[in-house]
Design goal:
single chain, about 80 residues, mainly alpha, two-stranded parallel ribbon, 4 helices, 2 strands, rod-shaped
């Protein structure tokens, strides 16, 4: 599979901790990452995504037009159909 997918535009990475498999992968032009390295990278990426999501969720959605809280409350009541 590494041979069929490997080309100038694509770099193949294979996750394996098997030493023999790693040498076979190198011979096919692919790069290897150990199972432990893959787990560490996935954990790091997951933490980064969670941090970004939390940061976005904590931001108060801003209005394009600055209005007072009183006006925002009035508009919200109108939007909900309350007078």
């Amino acid at each position: 599979m590494a041979i069929s997918l490997n080309n100038r535009k694509t770099q193949i990475h294979v996750a394996t901790s098997d030493y023999t498999e790693q040498w076979a992968i190198f011979g096919q032009g692919a790069l290897r990452i150990s199972a432990r390295e893959l787990l560490h990278e996935m954990t790091s990426v997951e933490k980064g995504i969670k941090h970004q999501v939390k940061s976005i969720q904590e931001k108060k959605p801003g209005s394009k037009i600055p209005i007072s809280d009183e006006m925002a409350e009035i508009f919200e009541k109108w939007r909900r159909g309350h007078k």
